[in-house]
Structures are given as structure tokens and as C-alpha cells.
Amino acid sequence: MPIHIGIEEQNRREIVQGLSHLLADTYTLYLKTHNFHWNVTGPMFRTLHLMFEEQYIELALAVDLIAERIRILGFPAPGTYGEFARLSSIKEEEGVPSAEDMIRKLIEDQEAVVRTARSLFIVLERSHDEPTADLLTQRMQVHEKTAWMLKSLLAE
To answer: Taking the CA of residue 79 as centre, how many other CA atoms within 13 Å lie in the half-sphere pointing to its CB?
Structure first.
């Protein structure tokens, strides 16, 4: 059945391309954060282990919201590691970095997700896609706050 929500198909397609990048970034960050949760060591172990757990649980919920928005707009959501690797601006982690390096990498990646989300606003404004804008605004707030909290762990 055709979709008649007031957004032309070409604009929906463009929005979905951006959302697919956001989904890939979010899923890759989820995987990296979960990996760090499992493998963190050192004096900050308990703090980071618990913090990373909170973060990966939040990210797991977020991927569902993003994928559902893609489906609402009428397109299939990417869902394989290959698609995520191709679409994501976040790189997988090889090896096990130190706890401080984990924090630094997650800060960079949280900020990368914000940039990916922010890049969609031009087409959202042109298409009057307020529901997607609302989703992205919420996601940006979460990622900006998480980056700030991670940065506070590195403060002298």
C-alpha cells in the first residue's frame, strides 16, 4: 500500500539513507561499547563496567527506534554486519585498549553519531519531517550528554 504521509518518496528515500547511516553508527557504537564493558580492566573497572553497561543498553533500545522510523518511511532497514560496516563512520575496535583509551574512543564515537544525526536536518527541514527531527534531537541529546560524562572521567 502506498505511503501518504506528506513526504515525497524521493525525500523519504534521502531521509532513510541518512537514517541508515545513523543506524549503522549506533549499532557499531553499541557493539564497541558492549565489547569495552566486557573487557575493561584497571582501577576504574567497576565505574566503567557499569557505565558502559548503561550505555550499551540505551544504544540497543535506540537501534530499534531508528530502524522502526526507517520502516515507517517505507524502506527496509539495514541489518547485517556487512551493511553496518559499509555505512558506519565508526570503526570496529581491534584488540583491547586501555581503560583510558576506551573512554577516548567512545568520546570520539559518541560525537561522530551526533554529527551523523545533525547532517540530516537539511533534508528534514525541507521535507517537514518533524517526527524524524524529534527522534534525531533526542538521540543527539543522549550522545552529547554521554560524551560529556565520558570526558569528565578524563578531567585532571
So the answer is: 9
CATH number for position 47: 1.20.1260.10
Put simply, whether the predicted model's pTM sits higher than 0.85 gets the answer: yes
Residue 148 burial (CB < 10 Å; 0-12/13-18/19+)?
exposed
Query: Per residue in 31-84, pLDDT tens?
Result: 999 999 999 999 999 999 999 999 999 999 999 999 999 999 999 999 999 999
Does any domain span residue 1? no
Q: What is the pLDDT of residue 150?
A: 97
Residue 4 lies in a domain: no
Burial class (CB in 10 A: 0-12, 13-18, 19+), 144: middle
What's the 3-state SS for 48-85? Answer: HHHHHHHHHHHHHHHHHHHHHHHHHCCCCCCCCHHHHH
The yes-or-no verdict on residue 156 having pLDDT over 80 is no
